[in-house]
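Table 4 source record.
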Amino acid sequence: MCSYGLRNFKKTLTRFSISLGLVLISVSCAAGQERLFIIGQDLGSVRDYMAGECCPRPDGITAYLSFYNLTSEGAGYGGLGIDLDGKPIDRESDWGGGPANAWKSATEFGSIGFAIGLSLVENEHPGALDRLVAGEYDDNIRQLARFFLKLDNAVYLRVGYEFDGFWNQGYDDSKRYVKAYRRIVDGLRAEGADNVQYVWQSAASPLDELTEGYHENIRDWYPGDDYVDWVAFSLFLLLDEAPGIEVENQPPTARELADELLALARERDKPVMIAEASPQGYDLAQGFNANIAASWDGPQARDRVGISPEDAWNAWFAPVFEYMNKNRDVIHALAYINCHWDSQDLWDAPYERGYWGDSRLQVSPELAARFSAAIDHWKEN
């Protein structure tokens, strides 16, 4: 698992005119074995997690950016947190999913890793991917590079994350997606943003498979080895969960979809990041589980079943850590979403985006203790 860090490490050494050799390879391989725990996903949730002091200090923070708004003052610079002169701004944008200011996320908690979900969807910007590829958004790429160049943090940039999710308009055309992805990577490299590692993230969602009615070939979206430092996927359902209602065709499970990503990662010699993880449908504060979507298990937030912290641990958390440890040769990062979903406008009733619940670890001392021990075990062994 040496390859993903090699190119960036070479660039760093080049700055100081240090010759490359066996020392480079050994250092790069050691860096490749590092395991990262990342927390997210909005600024408010991260602040609450840090203040709670329930669990391990993270190696990185998650934030999200709206690419097409990065140069727009009226749109809060897409949540970037700096203006066009590179000066930090105090504004915290909120599009319904909690406060966002990437500069604050990257600097408020010390110099730690910084994972960014960079949205390129056309939901509100029809035809934008073609314009991006044509160069019309090169100023946005330069603004993004300006931001990265101000940071000491290692940056993990999830370009057009969840490319295979039916909810992300524009990504369905894999060729357009690949061209847009490469345009951003090439542009950032040209600007000298060498602290960035590029993350290619699948939704790996059984709900996507069920909705579309067929299994996609994720390799169609692969931008190429030179453009991918990490292979990544999202994980929200139980690993072996099947639809709770009668369906015409059974979709692959989350485990099967994740296995597919891991096979590709091993083939291409890339580390894997679980880039978004949260037990969907579980309210850890109130102690219940409920339906997540009418198309999957019944009307959203209905059929509530009381659960104990041990029940929640055994259902979602323990299998996830078991999977991470079983595949520790490739899984090198976990980004947990520690969020009170149900308190945010984007995710609350009437749950048009599904029911998510409350995944905050600090609300359950028992879960927090088990989670902390599991993170320590995964990182140290």
